[in-house]
Amino acid sequence: MFPGFIKIADVKLEMGNFAKSIRKREKISQQALADRLNISRLTIQNMEAGRNFTIDTFLLVMEHFQMLHALNRWFKERRLEQEDLKSLY
């Protein structure tokens, strides 16, 4: 690997930490969030720890906390930046 190389596990951990910080800011327990989303507390626990979760679980949590629009906008802006780059070929 290259120095400074980011692994998928590193990104998953950051995603989980982000979701956890939002949940804590809203003062909602893992169990309460799981109940609201009709998923298990273990699913929330695993996501927050960056372990064994799907993108659907993360997006469901983002949707619950009304962060899905901002996340979608971020991806769209990155995509448009890439499309606006002029080809050197």
Question: What does this protein structure show overall?
Answer:
The protein is globular, with a radius of gyration of 16 Å. 69% of the residues lie in helices and 0% in strands. The chain has a single domain, classed as 434 Repressor (Amino-terminal Domain) (Orthogonal Bundle). It has helices at 8-25, 30-37, 41-48, 55-64, 68-84. It is mostly helical and 89 residues long. It is built from 5 helices and no strands.
Number of strands: 0
- Rg over C-alpha atoms, rounded to the nearest angstrom: 16 Å
Low-pLDDT residue intervals, each spanning 5 or more residues: none
Largest sheet: none
- Secondary-structure arrangement, i.e. CATH architecture: Orthogonal Bundle
On the 0 to 100 scale, the average pLDDT is 93
State the separation between the terminal residues, measured CA to CA: 30 Å
CATH homologous superfamily designation = lambda repressor-like DNA-binding domains
Helix content: 55-70%
CATH topology: 434 Repressor (Amino-terminal Domain)
The shape is globular
Number of helices: 5
Element-by-element helix/strand order: HHHHH
- Class from secondary-structure proportions: mainly alpha
CATH class: Mainly Alpha
Strand content: under 5%
Number of structurally distinct domains: 1
Could you provide a short overview of the structure?
Helix content is about 70%, strand content about 0%. It has about 90 residues and is mainly alpha-helical.
Topology:
Elements: H1 8-25, H2 30-37, H3 41-48, H4 55-64, H5 68-84
Helix pairs in contact: 2-3
